[in-house]
Structure formats: C-alpha cells, structure tokens
Amino acid sequence: MIRPIAFSSLLLLAPAALADPAQDYGEHCATCHGETRLGGSGPALIPETLGRMRGPDLEAVIAEGRGATQMEGFADRLTPEDIAALAGWLEQPLDTVPDWTEAEIAETREMNPDYVPTDAPVFGGDPMNITLVVETGDHHVSVLDGDSFDVLDRFETPFAVHGGPKFSPDGRFVFIMSRDGWVQKYDIWTLQEVGRARAGLNSRNIALSKDGRHLAVANYLPMTLTILATDDLSVERVVPVVSLGGETSRVSAVYQAPERNSFILALKDAPEIWEVMTDPDAPPIEEGDAEERGLIRRGPPEEGLFARRRIEIAEPLDDFFFTPDYRFLIGAARDGGRGVVVNLNVGREVAELPLPGMPHLGSGISWMRDGRRVMATPHLQEARLSVIDTQDWSVLRTIDTAGPGFFLRSHENSPYFWADVFFGPNKDAVHVIDKESLEIVRTLRPVPDATAAHVEFTRDGRHALLSIWEDEGAVIVYDAETLEEIRRLPMRKPSGKYNVWNKITFSEGTSH
Ligand code: HEC
C-alpha cells in the first residue's frame, strides 16, 4: 500500500498546486460539453474540433467565456493554474472514441414536431433564387431573397457549420452540417427546420446523391462515412473506412459526382480514392486491372446501391476539383506543391502538375476560353492564382495577387471571376479578373482592414454578393457588370453564401 500513502502525503504538502483537470471538467463543464467531451448543449471539446485554438487562446475562452452565449467565464472559480491544466487536458485526444453506431445515431434524431409541409413557398419571390448566408458569428443562417435582398428568415444552426450546405435536387430542402457532425434539415418553402441528427462526432462535409435520396457525411471521428435517408434523416448505412492495407482512415471530404451517379471520397490517411455508387442498379464493380484480378481476388465484387470501388493512388490526395463531366479530378498532394490528376474512369493517375504554395483545388472553378476548358485555383500560401488547361493539364498562366486567397467564384453569365485575398495585410482586397484576358480589371476594398471574402452570384449572374467576414460584418451586393455597390446587409461574420439555382444546376462558376 505504498502508493495511496505517497499520494495523500503529497496532497498534504501542496494541496493548492495540484490541479485536477478531469475533476474540474466533471464539476464545471460536463453538464454542457458532455461527460465524454463530445458535446451537449455546448460544442465538443476535443483536439480535433479545438483545432488551432490552443494554449493561451483556449485558456482565455475558459477564463473569460464567450460574450452573449451560454459559455460564461470561469476566472472566478478556477485559478490560472487550474485553467492552464484544464486547457492542456482538453488538448489531449480522447482515450476511446465511441463507435457511433447506427443505433447511437438514430438515438440523436429529433424531428421538429411543429413542422408542417406546404404545397407552395410561404413567400412571394423566386424560390430558385434564394441565397443562404451562413453567419458563423452567432451560428445562424439567413435566407435571402435573391431579387429583393430581403431576409426572409434567420434560423439557428448547430454550433460551427462546416462545409457547404447542400440542396435537394428540386431546391426545396437544404442540409447543413456542423463540425460536431450534426446534420440539420430545413425546408426553404416553409422556412422551418424539419429535423436534425448527429451523423458523426467530428465531421468534414456532406454530399447529396444525384436523386436526392441519400446524404453522405464524411467523418474524421469515428473513421466512417455515414449515409442518411434525406426524407427523415434515418440511418441507412455506416461504412467503416478501412484501406486495402487494413488501415483505418479519416474521410477528408465527400463529393457528389452527378455524371457518375456516385459519391467520391477523399481519404486522409490511405492512398485510395473511394467511389460509392448511388444507383440502385449499379453493375458489379471490378477493381484493379483485369490481369491482377485473376491473380488476387479480393472477394466478390460489390454491386447495387452503395457498392464501393477503390481507386489506388500513389499517396493520399485531398481537396478535389472535378472537371464538369466528372471524368477527371485534380487532388492536392500532401507536400502542398503538386496537383495530381486522376482519371476516374480508368481509375488511375494520369498527370501531375506543379502547383507550389498549397493549391486550394476545392475552390477551383472552370470556364471555356478560346474553345478550351480552363480551371483556376487559388493558393493558400502564395500570392497567386494558377490557370490550368484541362485538356493537356498544363499551367497556362499564373496571376499575381495581393496575397494568398481562399475562394474563387464566377457565373456563366459573367465575363469576370472574383478572387479574394484571404491572408496577409491585403485581406480587405478582392480582385475582379477578366476570364478572357486573365487580367485584373478592378481591385475592390469595400471596408479597409476588414476581411473581404467569398462571393456568390444571384441566379441570373447579374449580382455578386461579397462577405465582409467580421463579427460585425456584412454582405455587400454588387452589380456584377458595373461593379457598383448596390446594397449592404449587416451580418454576423458571414462566411459562405449559397444560391439555390447555382448549386442545384452545378454552375461551373462555383465549387460543389
Ligand atoms: C452552461 C453551459 C456551459 C458550461 C457549464 C461550459 N460551457 Fe463552454 N461553451 C458553452 C457553449 C454554448 C459554447 C459555445 C459558445 C459560442 O457560441 O461560441 C461553449 C464554448 C466553449 C469553448 C469554445 C469551443 C469552440 O470550439 O469554439 C470552450 C473551449 C469551452 N466552452 C470550454 C469550457 C470549459 C473548459 C468549461 C468548464 C470549465 C465550460 N466550457 C463550461 C457552454 C458551456
């Protein structure tokens, strides 16, 4: 019995110096953030979600809280040492991650008892020209009429929306996902929430199937793809993500490939791309080349709904841009300096191109220029854009910008594309670039020193909506041709904006 004695004598010697973060957590935090740290009325507190909020930043939130939220400060109850220990403890990964089985997901499903469907929109405008604005400042979405720019509704989302909301193919419903894996379904016609369910514990993004019946959720925790039925958010399938080599992998993103009637998955930890069929009549999938298949059969081929095909690649790829026919994708190599082109039909890498400075391919857009399809991508770590010829996969032009950017946007009816400068001293600048000459025609600085980022067009392409990405921010409406400012709508840190029509028609000017 040596240990208990040593422990209690230590306690007697220095009681105040002994911070016990697990106990402090249980006492002060668990009611809102969950006994398991996986969230409750407050968000999950695990390194995967805390992300870049570490050390002093994390301690400051615990000490001071977050204004105008349930999160109050604890400086009056916990010493700075306790808070530092608690912050350090929250930065440690969980010992065990729950499986998050179908039954556990089903348990979280809450349908709104007050939801009543209608036969027509409850508002007068064009339901196909609605633009949703995600306001990350206070976790709301504003529903904007794209003609009058009136806000028709403003509803609360789960904490920290992540990835773009996705519309049903008829544009009536929208699905919104939070970093903690909650999926919220909202009816744009009735301006009401339909329900929500927690599909993952830490999730990246969602995609809808071509027919709109299935919704896939890319998860980091656990390492699965969750597929929900879109009508009632019930669980259809939880697919464990295990590579050919037997390693589990996080899913960095899932994409709808409408031309292929499938989902495409980027795997974070395995040199594979997965394709999951959303066609109930999908033919049997033969993986690898015919000769090798004869030698090593990996079990019977999968077929039908959710049949899975693996595309083996040299190294994990992330952040995909797809050509509009969905024959090719470009993914970013992990070293951040190359793009790798994969032909999805034959299932192999076909080209590689130099894209130094972390290309953000997922934000890439494409258009026809001189009879050839080009695509453009920003770079997260370099002050330039790359314009790529998608016929021979050469870099056609690099355009110098005022700083590294995050998003690009255009529209079929606009001669310009818009590129933000997201990082560095010029984060208040947005370049408007001619799609033919590839010259910057105007640099807008709507609010000095405030981040200006992410553009979305109205359905007809006549107006461009730009975010002032600040807590007391705004959405600024521009005439997309004259570049004159038309309206300024106050918003709480508006991030992405999503126009129903541009999204459901897979407009080439926007990423999907
Ligand atoms: C009464 C409920 C409640 C209690 C108790 C509580 N929190 Fe919170 N906490 C919240 C809510 C709600 C948020 C989200 C605030 C917002 O909207 O930014 C939050 C946010 C946070 C965040 C920021 C998370 C992020 O990803 O941005 C941290 C860190 C945090 N809480 C830590 C703690 C710690 C540590 C304790 C215990 C000492 C604690 N909280 C106690 C409700 C609570």
UniProtKB/TrEMBL annotation:
Query: Which CDD domains does UniProt cross-reference here?
Result: 8prop_heme-binding_NirN
- N-terminal signal peptide: 1-19
Please list the residue ranges annotated as the Cytochrome c domain: 16-94
Coiled coil spans? none
InterPro entries reported for this sequence: Cyt_c-like_dom, Cyt_c-like_dom_sf, Cyt_cd1_C_sf, Haem_d1_sf, Host-pathogen_enzymatic-act
List, in alphabetical order, the Gene Ontology terms for molecular function in this entry. Answer: electron transfer activity; heme binding; metal ion binding
The protein's matches in PANTHER family, at most eight in alphabetical order, are given as:
DIHYDRO-HEME D1 DEHYDROGENASE, PROTEIN NIRF
Q: This chain belongs to which protein, by name? A: Cytochrome C oxidase, cbb3-type, subunit III
Q: Which organism is it from?
A: Pontibaca methylaminivorans
